[in-house]
Amino acid sequence: MSGATSNSNESSTQSQRILVLDFGAQYAQLIARRVREQNVYCEIVRHDISPEQIRKHSPAGLILSGGPSSVYEAGAPKCDPGIFELGIPILGICYGMQIACEILGGKVSNTPSREFGRAICEVVADDPIFNDFPKSAEVWMSHGDQVQSAGAGFIPIARTATCPVAAVKHERLPVYGLQFHPEVTHTPNGKTLFKNFLTEVCHCDGTWRLDNFAEEAIESVRKRVGSSRVICGLSGGVDSAVVAALLYRAIGSQLSCILVDNGLLRKQEASLVVGQFTNHFKADLHVVQAEDRFLAELAGVTEPQEKRRIIGRVFIDCFKAEAKKIQDAHFLAQGTLYPDVIESGAALDGPAATIKLHHNVGGLPKDLGFELIEPLRDLFKDEVRRLGLDLGLPEQLVWRHPFPGPGLAVRCLGEVTRERLAILREADAIVIEEIQRANLYRKTSQLFAVLLPVQSVGVMGDARTYENALAIRCVDTDDFMTADWTRLPYDLLAQMSTRIINEVAGVNRVCYDISSKPPATIEWE
Ligand code: XMP
Fold first, then answer.
1. Which residue puts its alpha carbon closest to atom 9 of ligand 1?
2. What angle do CA 91, 96, 97 make, to 5 degrees?
3. H-only helix segments in 141-237
4. What b/e string do you get for 419-444 counting C-beta neighbours within 10 Å, with b at 16 or more?
5. pTM to 2 decimals?
C-alpha cells in the first residue's frame, strides 16, 4: 500500500486502483473485496481525504461507502466537495449516494418508510451501469434516510416501491449513486453492478492478480532488505507461514525464522511447521524449546487474564533472547493483514488501535529495535491463503482454523498442567480429525475442544468414574467479531464424543457449546 493515507512500509505498484472512502460503514471492507474480486486493486481510505491526496494515488475510480450517520446531522462525516471536480468516476453507496446528492444540490431527509431488508429494485433508465442487470431485481436496503430530490444535475435511474430514488446518475459528471447495498450477498446481482462500474465507467482492465502481487512484493522486499538478514516469527498459523514462505522466495538464506514452542500448541502443529520450513524450504529455523519455562510460569495460575499476561511476557522474552543470537538482522517480518491495518486505524490515519487488548497476546511489541516488514498488509485472509498455496505451502497448513496466541492455555480452564494439556490436545486432535473426515472442516470457521475445570461421575465397564468434562466449540463466522454456533450433524457429534471418551483417558463427559457471539465469545477465556 502506498501514499499519504497509509503508514505501510511496502510500496505497491498496482497500476489501476479504486479508493473506497470510508464513512464508518460496516461494509467498507466488503466493498474493497468485491472490487478485488473483479481483479481491480482497491484500498480503503478516510472519508475526508483531500483531492490532492487522491490525485497522488491516481485512482481509476472512487467509491463512497455507506455509514451510520444522517448527512443532515451536525458533525456527520463529509467528503471534500472538490473530489467531484477531479473528473474521476465516483460511485456512492447508501450514505455515499446521499452525501454525493447533498453536495451536488439534492435534498436528503428522514423518510416515513424506512427500508431495512430485501426490496425489489425497478430499473427505469438505460445505462451501462445496469448492463446484464435484471430490470427488476432483488436488492438489500438498510437506511432510514432517502434522497428526496436528487438535485438538478441528477437523473433517477432506479426505484423501489418506497424509495423513488434508488439509483442516480449525474448528467454531467461521472457520478453514480445506489441507495441499496450491492456489496452484500443479499443483493444477488450486486457483483454485476461492481463489474459495470469498474469496466464501463472507470475503464479498468481487470488485470490485477495475486501472482502479480507476489512478484511485486518479492521484488520490493529484495530491494528494501539488500544484504541484511530478516527475522520472521513462526507461530504455527497461516499468516506467519505465508510471510516466511514469501520471504524465503525473496531472500532465501538471508531469512532466519524463530518458532517459540511454548508447549501450548495443537497436536503436531510445531512439527508440521518445522517440517515445512526445514525439509521443503531449507530455511534457517531456530526452534526455541520453551515448554518447561511456560509451564513453570503458569503453575498455579487459573485467572484467564493473568494467564494471557504471563504467556505474552514469556513469549517476548524467549523471542528476544533468540533474536539476539542472530547476527546482522535489521528487519523483523510480521504477518499483519489488511483487516488488522483497517481495524487498528493505521490505514485511515484514524484513532489509535481499537483491537481488543487480549487479541494482541502472542504478538511482539513495536520497540524491538527492528524495522518492520509486513508484506501481507494489503491482503485479506482468503487472499493470503491463495498466496500460501501459490508459494507451495501445503493445504493442511494453509487452511488451518485460526488459533489464539495464548494457545491451548485459554482452552484449558483452570490450571494449565502438562497432564491436562495432554488430555486437551488429544481430544482436540480427535474433533479435528472427525470433522475433516466428514468434509466439514473448510465449511466451519473454528472448531476446538475445551477442557473444563469440572469433574463428573460416570460409569465405565462396571466401575464408577469421576473424571473431566470437556466441551466442543464450533462456530461459523465471517469476521470473528460475531459468530454463531455451528449446527453440526448429531451423528458427527456422537462420533466425536464416543471417540474422545473411549480414547482419551481422563474424560468421561462431552458437551457441545451452543452459545453465539455475542453474548459469548469464541474462546472460553
Ligand atoms: P473471541 O474469543 O474474542 O475470539 O471471540 C475471536 C477470535 O480471536 C482469536 N483470539 C486470539 N488471537 N491472540 C490471538 O492471536 C489472542 O490472544 C486471542 N484471543 C482470541 C480467537 O481464537 C478467535 O478466532
1. 404
2. 70
3. 190-196, 210-225
4. ebbebbbbbbbbbbebbeeeebbeee
5. 0.77
418-437 helix and 490-503 helix, angle to the nearest 10 degrees: 140
Top-confidence range, 26-35, 92-101, 147-156, 476-485: 92-101
> Rounded to an integer, what distance in angstroms lies between the CA atom of residue 309 and that of residue 233?
19
Q: Which atom of ligand 1 is nearest to the CA of 361?
A: 17
Probe residue for ligand 1, chosen from 309, 408, 522 as the CB with the greatest number of ligand atoms within 8 Å: 522
Structure confidence at residue 254 (pLDDT): 97
Q: Is 183 a catalytic residue?
A: yes
d(CA 452, CA 422): 14
Helix 238-251 vs helix 381-390: crossing angle, to nearest 10: 50
- Could you identify the atom of ligand 1 that is nearest to the CA of residue 363? 15
pLDDT at 349: 46
What stretch(es) of the chain map to CATH 3.40.50.620? Answer: 213-398
Pick the CATH number of 10-201 from 3.50.50.60, 3.40.50.1370, 3.40.50.880, 3.40.1260.10: 3.40.50.880
| Residue-wise pLDDT tens digits, 265-323 | 999 999 989 999 998 889 999 999 999 999 999 999 999 999 999 999 999 999 999 99
pLDDT at 10 over 60: no
- How far apart are alpha carbons 525 and 515 in whole angstroms? 14
Q: What is the pLDDT of residue 110?
A: 73
The CATH H-level (homologous superfamily) assignment of domain 213-398 is HUPs (3.40.50.620)
232 an active-site residue? no
Count of residues for the chain?
Answer: 525
State yes or no: pLDDT of 160 exceeds 80. Answer: yes
Distance 311 CA to ligand 1 centre (A): 14
Q: Which residues line ligand 1 (CB under 6 A)?
A: 358-359, 361-362, 402, 404-406, 446, 480, 517, 521-523
Q: Locate cell 426490496: which residue?
A: 119
Q: Whose CA is nearest to atom 10 of ligand 1?
A: 404
Euclidean distance between CA atoms 508 and 506, whole angstroms: 7
Cα-to-centroid distance, 496 and ligand 1 (Å):
24
pLDDT, average across residues 44-52? 94
Give span(s): CATH 3.30.300.10, the chain.
413-512
Which protein residue's CA is at the shortest distance from atom 16 of ligand 1?
A: 359
**CA 208 remoteness from chain centre:** 20
What separation in Å is there between the alpha carbon of 340 and the centre of ligand 1? 13
pLDDT band of 355, cuts 50, 70, 90: very low
Q: Which of 324, 310, 335 is nearest to 369 (CA)?
A: 324
- Residues 212 and 235: their CA atoms lie apart, in Å, by 27
| Section 109-130 average pLDDT | 84
Out of 43, 183, 343, 426, pick the active-site residue.
183
Q: Is 143 a catalytic residue?
A: no
Return residue ranges of the chain for CATH 3.40.50.880. 10-201
Written out in words, the top-level CATH class of the domain with range 413-512 is alpha beta
